[in-house]
Every structure is written in C-alpha cells, then in structure tokens.
Amino acid sequence: MTVRAAAAADAAALEQLERTLFSAENYPLSRRAFYYHIRHSLLLIAQTDSGEMAGYILALLRRREPKLYSLGIAPAYRKMGIASLLMERMLSELASRGFMRCVLEVRCDNNAAIDLYRRFGFETVKTLEGFYKDGCNAYLMRH
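The chain above was modelled as a monomer; its predicted structure follows.
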C-alpha cells in the first residue's frame, strides 16, 4: 500500500470512490471539488500495488488550524489499517508545514471514526446539535 499526494489524474477515481461512500444527502464531493482540493488542500490517497484507490484523506488548510474534512476507505479495504496510515501521513504532513493542531467534525453515531480519531489524540471539544442534514449531532474534535 502506498500513500501519496493526489494528482489531477486521480480526480475521476476520487469522485467514483466518493459516490460509493456517501449518498447525495451526505454531500459527496464532485470531480471539480477534487480538482480544487488537489491544488489548494492536503489530499492524500492510499493506492494498492496494482494501482487501485483504496482510500483518501482530505485536510483543508486554514489559517491557524487545518480541518480534517473527509476520510474515506473503499469497502473492500476496510479494517486493514488504511485509515490509520492515512491519518499518520496527514498529521506528519501537517506538522511539516508548521501546523500543530487540527480540527474535525464527526457524526456522534460513527463510533469507528471516533475511536480512530481518539487513538490519534483528538479530543471532543463540544457537541454540535443537529449538525447533519438528517438531524444527527456531531462532535467537534481537536488534535
């Protein structure tokens, strides 16, 4: 498994993975959005030795604190440690750019993601009531 920065040639595969992972009401990113983030954000992909995209992580680079915006793993590659690889690389890349903190929002009912973020030192700052379109609350977490 290789983790690398996304390139413009990855935008179509990223969009396809995104549509597999997120329904329309969960605001999947478009190909155009991925092109934008490839240029302006930290967008890393996990790629198999055969070239298949196994997952990605997207951090928006903000003035003081970057924001982990999205993390997606293809269903066939879940529970293989890929999310942890992407988290490690993201935090390392952010630190190399001078960022020591990071924030994110996560659904309160997404226990697997919450556990992952806590393993990487994220702590819950507050609950955001009705944050998601379906009314689900979110936790604001900070590293």
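The chain has two domains: 2-101, 104-143.
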